[in-house]
Design brief:
By secondary structure, this protein is mainly β. 11% of the residues lie in helices and 30% in strands.
Length: 574
């Protein structure tokens, strides 16, 4: 949580309604948080920590904790955890406990711990609060039923640095990460509480090298974990961002490396709320985005674009691909079931994105300290219209924006609509970017050169009839053939003008491969040409990662346009 320069912490705006304020004591709020169901709201103003009942505005608890820097509610809102920076004094060489757990019914402190690091400061609870876990000196300490005076169980693994407790009902499972050392690989293991004893107690195990840190992500059903392993430095020199790999582990013991077709960093990995699919944004810009199933097979490829993040709606029926940070804020809103694009708004300079629990609205914000100018937020409908806009005065800063959470099931999934929602502020569809042309070339025909080879969306599911999806080269040739046939039918030249894009385009689906010509020699030539083109694509990918190619390999790449032309001529003759 970051400090707010606003005099009071704002409650979130929903459906464009004006916000209300709490705690009118004239002090700036430094840290705020909601309970999981949105019924309670807590904040610290540098003097006290206050807990408010959102429904009626009553202050339930006021705790004298001026140095508090972090706040967190337990899942069922029975406990408030507070943390302040650890410090030593002349009176106490060891210092005082700085992590406190407060009973919200009585206001009494249940337990205080020493917690020097801010990272991982808060205990992790199971959803029913029957289990709480802390990482203490390479051990996981488990507490039961919020009784923190007694350690109910321990999991000891040498140098455990990360753990994630599973969501959902009992039995609880825990994923743990141990970094490699002295030539030994790093590994992630899955356990079911409290079965920790014995070498065969782990539900699943995955070992890997090239890992300085990991991010572990359970799906909602607690049946599988995605592990993004990262190194700080890419020793091949191919990436400024280091090197990342993505691993899949399931509680049934299955594990796999998720094969990503494009080289480059992994920007984001998200599970669908249905737990049967996950989306990965990856590769050198323009980045690719692909949805995979539980077999780690690609289901749908969104092609390439300026994106580095993905966000599923709480109901899982809409997926937003976005490019924030050093990108221009383009958002692609997709129907996650039919894989049809709904809208393509743009929110420049956004540093924050969040779905409203209703699955209908989105907030984007420009916040400090990432950006200290132009602070403010916008409320969007997923069809691309801006419903509400709020700008912070130039002499103030916006540090955080939060939706009020709601209990699961309050907002059921609604049918997706493609018509833009009405709004006085209109939509924010980006205007087509025009490439700069020097004055001497402005009256001449435009060149067709592109900075990047763009890849269109492609359905990766196995089509009915057993035909495999077409390769990139085959799709490219298919488009050329269709354009030439259309030109001949209309009696026009080959430079066919593209139709204006449909405002709600459906994703192209692959068509079956071209039929055989009937001539064995011609079919053999086509097969050989496709094989050569595929090999050239692989060489180009290797070259993009920084691999030094041999002279004969470079000569092969130089022949690609010639081979593509030969293949096109043969296929047009069919």
């Amino acid at each position: 949580m970051g400090p707010h320069s606003l005099p009071v912490p704002p409650l979130p705006v929903q459906d464009g309604a004006p916000h209300t304020s709490v705690g009118r004591d004239g002090r700036a709020s430094k840290f705020v948080t909601f309970s999981r169901d949105g019924s309670l709201f807590a904040w610290c103003n540098g003097d006290k920590v206050s807990v408010l009942n959102v429904a009626d505005g009553r202050v339930l608890q006021s705790l004298d904790l001026p140095k508090t820097a972090c706040l967190e509610f337990s899942p069922k809102s029975s406990i408030l955890a507070t943390w302040q920076p650890y410090s030593k004094t002349q009176e106490s060489a060891q210092g005082d406990p700085n992590l406190h757990l407060w009973d919200l019914q009585t206001g009494k402190c249940l337990k205080s711990f020493y917690q020097k690091k801010m990272q991982g400061w808060c205990p992790t609870w199971s959803d029913d609060e029957s289990i709480a876990v802390r990482n203490v000196n390479n051990e996981l300490h488990f507490f039961e039923n919020n009784k923190f005076d007694t350690i109910a169980n321990k999991l000891h693994l040498q140098k455990v640095t990360e753990f994630v407790l599973s969501p959902g009902a009992q039995p609880s499972k825990v994923a743990v990460y141990v970094p490699g050392s002295k030539g030994a690989p790093s590994f992630v293991r899955l356990y079911q509480y409290p079965n920790f004893a014995g070498p065969t107690s782990a539900l699943a195990n995955k070992s890997f090298f090239k890992s300085d840190k990991v991010t572990m992500l359970w799906n909602k059903k607690a049946s599988a974990v995605l592990v993004t392993a990262s190194t700080e430095v890419d020793k091949t020199g191919a990436s400024y961002y280091g090197e990342q790999t993505l691993h899949y582990l399931a509680v049934n013991g299955e594990s796999a490396v998720v094969q990503l077709p494009k080289s480059g960093p992994i920007y984001d990995v998200v599970w669908s709320p249905g737990s049967a699919e996950f989306c990965v944004v990856y590769g050198f810009m323009p980045a690719k985005a692909t949805v995979f199933n539980l077999k780690c097979d690609p289901v749908f490829d969104f092609g390439t674009g300026p994106r580095n993040a993905a966000y599923y709606s709480p109901q899982g029926h809409i997926l937003v691909l976005a490019g924030f940070g050093n990108l221009r804020g383009q958002m692609e809103v997709w129907d996650a079931k039919r894989y049809k694009q709904i809208s393509k708004p743009q929110a420049p300079d956004s540093t924050f994105f969040s779905w409203c629990p209703d699955g209908e609205h989105i907030v984007t914000a420009t916040c400090a300290p990432r950006l200290r100018v132009g602070n403010g937020y916008k409320i969007w409908h997923y069809t691309g219209t801006v419903l509400h806009k709020s700008d912070v005065p130039s002499d103030a800063e916006l540090w955080e924006v939060l939706w009020q959470p709601c209990a699961e099931g309050v907002f059921p999934e609604k049918p997706i609509r493609y018509q833009a929602a009405p709004s006085e502020l209109g939509s924010a569809e980006p205007k087509p970017a025009q490439a700069y042309r020097p004055p001497a070339l402005r009256n001449r025909p435009a060149a067709s050169s592109k900075l990047h080879e763009e890849e269109p969306p492609q359905n990766m599911k196995q089509p009915a009839g057993g035909e495999r999806p077409l390769s990139r080269a085959a799709l490219k040739n298919q488009k050329k053939r269709e354009a030439k046939k259309a030109a001949k039918q209309e009696g026009k030249s080959d430079d066919v003008q593209d139709k204006p894009p449909d405002p709600l385009p459906a994703c192209p689906t692959p068509t079956p491969a071209a039929a055989a010509s009937g001539d064995p020699e011609t079919d053999k030539k086509i097969k050989n040409l496709r094989k050569k083109i595929k090999a050239i694509e692989q060489l180009k990918e290797q070259q993009a990662t920084g691999k030094q190619l041999e002279k004969n390999q470079i000569e092969k790449i130089q022949k690609e346009s010639q081979l593509l032309q030969e293949l096109e001529d043969l296929e047009l003759g069919l």
